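Subject: Re: docking follow-up (adenosine-5'-triphosphate)

Dear J.,

Thanks for your patience while I sorted out the input files. As discussed at Tuesday's group meeting, I've set up the holo structure prediction with adenosine-5'-triphosphate included as the bound ligand rather than trying to dock it afterwards. The sequence and the ligand SMILES I used are pasted below, so you can double-check that they match what you have on your end before we go further.
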Amino acid sequence: MNSRLPPLILISVGVALLLFQIYHLPLVLLVLPILLSIVAVLSQYFLGRNNIISDTVNKHQIFEIKSNNRTFTGAVLKISGRIEVDKNNVGFQKELENLMETIGRRDVGFEYYVITNLSKKKASSALVIIKECSSCEDDILNEVRDLQDISKAVSPHLHLEISPTSEKSIPVPTSWGNLGYAKVYHKIIDSPTNLSLSNDYDIELGEMKTDLTYVKTGIKLADLTRHIGIFGSTGSGKSTTASILIKRLYERGYKSIVLDWHGEYIDKLKFLNIRNQDNIFKINPLRLGNIEDIVEILGDVLNLTDPQKFLLYTVLIRIRKVGKFDLKTLIRILRSVDETSNWMREVKYGLLRKIYLLFVGDAKKIFDNQIEKMDPNELLNSVIDLSFISNLRLRRIYSMFIIKIISDYYIRNKPSQNALLVIEEAHNYFHKDNEFLEKLITEVRKFGLGLCIISQSPSSITPEVLKNTNTKIIHSIKSDFDKKILAESLSLDLSLYNAMDKLEIGEAIISAPNIKIPVIIKIKM
Ligand SMILES: Nc1ncnc2c1ncn2[C@@H]1O[C@H](COP(=O)(O)OP(=O)(O)OP(=O)(O)O)[C@@H](O)[C@H]1O
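The structure tokens for the complex came back this morning:
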């Protein structure tokens, strides 16, 4: 009860008695002011009481607050961070910011508060939602479900769970959640961007983030032959992305050939033929198409000097004339070259020393002089495991010969259906100018062969090759130099540039002819 009430009544009664004594007034005039005083005091008491919260009820974890004849209904959602067993570096703070930004743009009649409780040496956060309405439990539960869906999309590691509130108080969280800390920024949120994101794709790759949720996206089949580049630091998700792409192509009846530098696709692409050391695709290097390309490939990998390249060229022409396509004949012809000068002797023995690699060790497993015809069809829809070839130069020569066999097949036969040649650790091939590879990347597109170039070191790939990959999928990349090269090649804005090293595993910036501006997508396994 109001503590001022008794003295006021006493004063009123005293004044009335005084007036009664002085003016001999009728009794009614004594009672009237007393009654008026009591009414005034009581009305003040009751009106005053109406200014504070009159009641808080809690129905099925939904609270209701009545104040000044208005009713507010809401719920408290505990925010907790979910750490997955194999991921310990989850960006909770970034996800919380995403969530707040997204919720801040909602306009469905709710007020939202993020409350961070700091007590018992522990910080924890909760999202309080309130709407002015009564008997609207369903509205509140619907909003809770919507918020949980939004959270799943924009902050996959944060979990919103409705939690009980105390019956008689405005909800103030006590020990909610296991989130380390939560900063609630005073941020002015831009009005929702009206980005007209193109969603015209044939091969689904994942989902891109929009204002409120994620939208599925991918690439067009027609863009396969305009070549694809997949870049990212080790473990960022490159080979998983490539495998998803290959699998989706396979399901559509498209063929892929994977040059698997480290043998990491065998388990991922079990539905393709596996070409490994038990099932080697053998090559006769001397029967490979035009001589210029063979000289270019060997010259590049074996670091042949120009005179050595020329000598090799003349020897290969003589082999064709002789019609004996074996490496022994090559050595015999090379040995028979006149040593007319010291210079010639040096060139000849220098070349012999370098091509020695083609006759020893693993070369004996991968090259076969007896083979007359190599059937490229045996390579389509295959993973070619290169990891058993221990000499890296020999590994490069073998895989470049395979590239040659496949590209020659496409150029000559122009098969009706496009295919994708996936080149892992592409910096091992495209690190310096090489006429054969440059010709390859500019020409094969016309014949239905697309290249998918994968590398953790895009700065080691020649600018010409980088420029020729029209679709780029960039996973998290740490090196500033690599970031700069890619950002320049895509004209990335500052926010995407800054995001490049913060992308989570499986997230990537994608730029493709069917997607108007580069966006971040989450590749879906
Ligand atoms: N989109 C994704 N969704 C979920 N997990 C993923 C995704 N992409 C990759 N991962 C996981 O991340 C790990 C590394 O992926 P992946 O091997 O594809 O990376 P990488 O960039 O090819 O690595 P490296 O350069 O070492 O070959 C794997 O355990 C894989 O399962």
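A couple of observations from a first look. The chain has three domains: 55-162, 216-280+375-523, 292-358. The pocket of adenosine-5'-triphosphate is lined by residues 232, 234-240, 264, 456, 505-506, 523, 525 (CB under 6 Å).

Let me know if you'd like me to rerun anything.

Best regards,
T.
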